[in-house]
Amino acid sequence: MAANYATVTWDQLHRDARTLASALMPRGPFKGIVAVTRGGLIPAAIIARELDCRLIESISVVSYAGESAEEQSEPVIVKPATAAEDGEGFLIIDDLVDSGETAKIVREALPKAHFACLYAKPSGRPHTDQYVMEVSQDTWVLFPWDTAPLFVPPLARQSA
């Protein structure tokens, strides 16, 4: 169980994706983008728009299984990024690099690609080429697609 939780709003995610896109501009143009599913899909779409990149491929990696969404297992590629071949000229996008295990398997599959993500934890940081913000290893990041708005009654109507 994570010691801390950090909630990323849609607005924050969009700002951070645009910040990453801006930092990636000098490295382009890219032949295409490979989104690491599922977390990298939305950041990849935003970054593709900002970089005016039309070729978007995906690589599907399963690394969280079991009872808890916080229990990481051995990552397995369930759908390769065949259009990217060895990754030359491609940009890999993910939302977060945590332990680095998913990033390692993706980098092995696409060794010539540039790997960028929005957020990086210390254990995963060495496995990415670029990121926007570092978060502590004991923080579980709650992305907008992980949460739902919930009605909260006014304080005056809540029972003591």
Automatic annotation (TrEMBL):
It is a peripheral membrane protein. InterPro entries: PRTase-like, PRTase_dom, Xanthine_Guanine_PRibTrfase. Guanine binds at residues 98, 141. Mg(2+) binds at residue 95. 5-phospho-alpha-D-ribose 1-diphosphate binds at residues 38-39, 94-102. Keywords: Cell membrane, Glycosyltransferase, Magnesium, Membrane, Metal-binding, Purine salvage, Transferase. It is an enzyme of class 2 (transferase). This is Xanthine-guanine phosphoribosyltransferase. It comes from Acidomonas methanolica NBRC 104435.
